[in-house]
Every structure is written in C-alpha cells, then in structure tokens.
Amino acid sequence: MDAGPINAGTVLTPAWEEYDHVAAIDDQGRIVLDGQIHDTPSGTANAAGAGTNGWTFWLADTPEGQVSLADLRAASSEES
C-alpha cells in the first residue's frame, strides 16, 4: 500500500461508527483484518462488510490523531 507515511503496526479503524473492526498495517505494507491479509484498503473495507471506498472508510492512528487513508495519500502526493 502506498498511502504515504504509514508504518508497520499502524492501527486502522472505520470512519463509520456502525463498524467496529480493527485492522493493522503489516511489515510489508498490507492490511490485516481478522487474520486475513488484504492488499488494498477497499478490499479490506469489503471484507469488513462495508462495500465502499476503503481510502475514505479507514482511519489511521497517527501522532496527529486519526486521519483517513485518502488524506494521507493526498498529503503524500503533495510532498512528491
């Protein structure tokens, strides 16, 4: 996953309150949800039952607080 400055172990939580899944970034940049490895945020959102754009569904825990993967990706592309 190329969403910018996301380190292994970063916790991802849904932006939607009705979902209580917790995912994490592994050491290869993939997303692990319920023991299953996913290559994309949207695939992981689908696995959580959300059937939506995972870039906006998942929030990453960062030192600045929770930030959507979409915002992290946009910030990363602005830095390039």
Task: Offer a few descriptive terms.
alpha+beta
Summarize the structure.
This protein has 80 residues and is α+β, with helices and mostly antiparallel strands. It has one domain (11-79). The protein has helices at residues 41-47, 54-57, 69-79, and strands at residues 11-14, 23-25, 31-33, 36-38, 58-62, 65-68.
Overall description:
28% of the residues lie in helices and 28% in strands. The chain has 80 residues and is an alpha+beta fold. The mean pLDDT is 92.
Which class of secondary structure composition applies to the elements? alpha+beta
Instruction: Tell me which oligomeric state these chains represent.
Output: single chain
Whole-number count of domains: 1
Name the poorly predicted regions: none
Largest sheet: 6 strands, antiparallel
The helical percent reads 25-40%
Radius of gyration of CA atoms, rounded to a whole number: 11 Å
User: Helical segment tally?
Assistant: 3
Q: Strand tally, please?
A: 6
Average residue-wise pLDDT? 92
Strand order of the largest sheet: 4-3-2-1-5-6
How would you spell out the order of helices and strands?
Answer: EEEEHHEEH
**Shape field:** globular
End-to-end C-alpha gap: 16 Å
Strand residues, percent: 25-35%
